[in-house]
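Next up, sample data.

:::
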Amino acid sequence: MRIAIVTPAPAGSRKGNRVTALRWARILRGLGHRVVVMESWNDRPCDLMVALHARRSADSIERFHRKHPDAPLIVVLTGTDLYSDINTSNAARKSLEFASRLILLQPLGIKELPRHVRRKSRVIYQSLERPPKKVPSLKRLFEICVLGHLRPVKDPFRAAMAVRSLPLSSCIRVIHLGAALTHAMAVRARMEMQRNPRYRWLGEVPRAKTLRILARSRLLVLTSRLEGGANVVSEALAAGVPIVSSRIAGSVGILGSDYPGYFPVGDTRALAAMLGRAECDRRFYRSLKDHCRRQARLVTPARERRAWELLLRETAASS
């Protein structure tokens, strides 16, 4: 089968949408299909289209649907789709109607969909290969990884603000990986490093290095205001790194409602208390680690490959 994957993230980008598109391209090629990844559909012949982002890929989605109304069209819903755009954008809402299937990255996203399109939704958890060997943590530091580009929806400086109030005895240091998407964000990150010795921003680094730093970290901290189902959560689970996350549906849908590592969105004091507890309370830290170990079964490559295999079989049967 000829498959086009459309993602608004350009070639060379390290944004989550591009990482997801390239991983899915590898999976689909492994299943025997011919796959091309593009920013927008250019009328290239294909038997099926997978489009990431209902609003930002809306033109490609509508054009493909108009030209091939009976061909399978799979739309992948991001966090901004689910928790913003489908409520405010006519283009995003039309994409829901044009799609023959909708992919969610975690099951709680279905609650955000109009009832009449929920039957088209399927969940595919994002995966990562488990590292071949454990990367040792730094002995003298309790290193915490924040992995995400600097943009408002990520609330990128929340962890930096939280660690300012920790006692002098704390060994916590925040390593922040991700590009500043505006000059103002870059200036703020540099200023934060100057006045906050617990915070270090490395900017955008190669993916292999990113995964090594994540793997050696004691925690991944996710401070986002919304996520459709963050790649970094899957990456941390695969690496055996416990997670502290804002209580958002995108994380709860993967980690479960009973996970003990949530803090209220934007609550600096609550995040600081949780980080201090993770550093000093071995029982609490172990509970985070044990829970994440159990949830790691959701993010195995074999499970993601099987989900795609079933979805393609289903779309072929119904087209």
